[in-house]
Amino acid sequence: MSVNNPSSTIFYAIEEAIKAYRKLSSREIKKVISDITVDQALILQIINENQITQTEIADLLFKDYASMTRIISLMIKKDYIVKMVNQRDKRSVVLKITKKGEISLEKLTPIINNNRQIATDGITKNELEQLKNILNKITQNSKIN
Question: Which residues contact 10 (CB under 8 A, 6 or more apart)?
Answer without folding.
Answer: 138
